[in-house]
Each structure stands twice: as structure tokens, then as C-alpha cells.
Amino acid sequence: MLDNNKIAAASRILHDHWRAGTKLEGLETSLRPRDRSEAYAIQAAIENHSTGSLFGWKIAATSEAGQKHINVDGPMAGRILRETVIADGGTASMAGNEMRVAEPEFAFRMQMDLPPRAAAYTVRDVLDAVDTLHPAIEIPDSRFRDFVSAGAEQIIADNACAHLFVLGAPTTSNWRALDLVEEKPAIALRGKQYTGLGKNVLGDPRIALAWLANELRQLGITLRRGEVVTTGTCHPPLPIQPGDLFEADFGVLGRVSVGFK
């Protein structure tokens, strides 16, 4: 079992590589997590290096395409640090980013805490705790040079490939009356059009949100009021390069965009 010193050391190595935009082959054996519990403990320590309060949470690998992209067999949670958030319409640096993809996502901001409890949260429980729905774009990356071979435990420790995040304005539409499963965001990139689908997000973005609440519940973590949860890509990750403008039109739910340099 990893002790607190090794957890802190592994977290510091991953965070330092993120800040420097550099990559590593893998954590040394003595620091490598052997299960999801140790992996999440390393991830949690990343918060100690953050410059502000936690902005929210991401869910990696909620779609089959996302799972294939990092070679894992199911979803995993990651932290969105406040300093990684880019304003809607802003510009994201490509420096140090080797994954070089962007993902259109449905994101929810919470209006109530969901603390740990014995019983699992239902989708209805979680939706009742939501304040607003937003279009969003995630720009993932990994600190591992070969993230495909890193394995789920190291990927979780590596903050589930969290890197940069763009949050659009809250929708003014009655999103609770919509079937998010059938929502089809349109993505414009480099003169081409792509179509996402809500169903790609663990079958339903609302189900993905409930998954996140229950993953945190089992870890003894409260999903807090004001935190944002982005639920995973609704389209296979799209390659990006400097000079690109990535625009995602979620129809009545709004738009979000980001440029790259």
C-alpha cells in the first residue's frame, strides 16, 4: 500500500509535468497505484498544488470512442482545477499538449451538495440538485507519453487526463423537458461539420452525472454546490492544431467555442 509520502510524491511528479508541459514514461514502481483507491488518492493530492478552490469534475471515457482513445474499459472521474478553465471564446495554448484533441460536452452546475451516504444516488436525486446546464468543451491531455499503455490506475492518478476546460453560458431553455439522449450538437472545425449525440455519453448525460455523484460518494467525497460536472464527449475526440477554432452549437442549449495557438 502506498503511504502518504509516496502518494504526495507521485502527485507532485504528475503535477510538475503538467505545469512544465513535459511527459514521463510512467511512475516508478514504488509510486505506482495498484488499485483505483490508491489512484484516486494520488489524484486528490493534486488539489494541494492548485491556486484556488476546486472548479468541478470531469468524467473521462464515458463513450466507447473515449474508452478506446485511452485504452480503458469504463469511466473515471477527474478534477477540474480553477486555473485550467478558459473563458468561452478564448484561446487555449497547445504548448506541451501531445493528445491534441477537443471534445464537445454537456456540463452541469450544482445548486445543492450531494454528500456521501450509504444509498446510491438516483438520476432523479442528482438532477434535483442541479442548477444549470451548459455547453462545454474539454481539451484533455496526459502526463504520460504513451497514455494508451499507461493503464486505468495511472490514468486516474493523472487526473483522468484533465488539462483545459471551456464552459459556455448556462442555457436559457427548459433543458429539463428535453431528451438529452437525442440532442445532436453540431461541431465546426477547420471547415468541416461534425455531429455529436447525447446518447454517446454513457447512454445519457444525466446517467453520467449520476455516475459521477456515486463515484464520489463511494470515495467519501461531497459533490458541492457551485461545482461544475462535465459529463464526457458526445463525439469521438476531434484532432486540433494551432490556428484552429473549435465551435460547438448545442442548438437551443447554446453555443461554446475556443481557439488554439
Keywords for this structure?
five-stranded mixed sheet, Fumarylacetoacetase_C_sf, alpha+beta, Hydratase-Decarb/MhpD_sf, Hydratase, globular, 2-oxopent-4-enoate hydratase activity, 261 residues
Describe the structure.
By secondary structure, the protein is α+β, with helices and mostly antiparallel strands. The chain contains six helices and 13 strands. It has helices at 4-20, 36-45, 64-70, 123-128, 152-157, 205-219; strands at 56-60, 76-80, 85-87, 91-92, 101-110, 130-139, 164-167, 186-189, 192-195, 228-233, 238-239, 245-249, 255-260. The strands form two sheets. Strands 1, 2, 3, 5, 6, 7, 10 and 11 form an eight-stranded mixed sheet that branches. Strands 4-13-12-8-9 form a five-stranded mixed sheet, with no helix packed on it. Helix 1 crosses helix 2 (36-45). The chain is globular. The protein starts with a helix and ends with a strand. The mean pLDDT is 96. InterPro entries: Fumarylacetoacetase_C_sf (IPR036663), Hydratase-Decarb/MhpD_sf (IPR050772).
Secondary structure elements and their pairing?
Elements: H1 4-20, H2 36-45, E1 56-60, H3 64-70, E2 76-80, E3 85-87, E4 91-92, E5 101-110, H4 123-128, E6 130-139, H5 152-157, E7 164-167, E8 186-189, E9 192-195, H6 205-219, E10 228-233, E11 238-239, E12 245-249, E13 255-260
Parallel strand pairs: 1-10, 3-7, 4-13
Antiparallel strand pairs: 1-2, 5-6, 5-10, 5-11, 6-7, 8-9, 8-12, 12-13
Helix pairs in contact: 1-2
